[in-house]
Amino acid sequence: MTAAGGTVLQAGYCFWYMRRGKNSNKEPVTAKAEGEETQGASGAVNPYENSIKIIATIHSVEQFWRVYDYLMRPNDLPTTTDYHFFREGIKPTWEDASNAKGGKWIVRLKKGLASRYWEEVILALIGGQFTGIPDGEVCGAVISIRFSEDIVSIWNRTAIDRDVTDRLRDAIKRILQLPSHVHMEYKPHQASLQDKSSFRNTQVWKPKSLESRESVRGADGPHRRSGSWGEREERPKPKSRDVERAWR
């Protein structure tokens, strides 16, 4: 749909920004400017929520590019910085009504790949590329810049619906063209509220072929993780890509 203001999106979206630490109130997010996840305890002043800053709200393709072109790319952001890109009306917190019963899929990236895959995710959101997923099920996405890795998270509304979460996982794999051996992780927001973390104690999904090989080798125990992945696996770059990928 095209209007006087440009090509209108199916839904409005908001760019958000957060930087942890003593300089969190400073916002080095534009091209002209310069741990662990927690969202505070229930019933107390929430430092996480107070530190989230909205950058802009967009309703058209043209507005998107005006904002996006002005922002620093994730690869250039300081460590412990997050960008959030969420549907208008949804705040990027676990407690938000649209998120409270949901969760997120997590993809961990080698340093240096964040900008490319963040762009692919948010373009897929505004372009309606999450086919097969109910309208409004995907709430938004986050890119988290950390010391040893960067993390892309895609948030959805209904963690309890296994069919929907599995279809969302497959859509993410397709959109990001993830290699078949990639591990993905899922964590319901209710679990995050309980352990006060975003990326610890996640449920790890592995391709069935990989699970079978590990079973033959005697791998056992629940598919959960705590802390960071171990050694990265360097893989040859796909022919369709001009950048080397390394996944955990």
Automatic annotation (TrEMBL):
InterPro entries: TIF_eIF4e-like, TIF_eIF_4E, TIF_eIF_4E_CS. GO terms for molecular function: RNA 7-methylguanosine cap binding; translation initiation factor activity. Pfam families: IF4E. Residues 208-223, 230-248 have a biased composition (Basic and acidic residues). GO terms for cellular component: eukaryotic translation initiation factor 4F complex. Keywords: Initiation factor, Protein biosynthesis, RNA-binding. Belongs to the eukaryotic initiation factor 4E family. This is Uncharacterized protein.
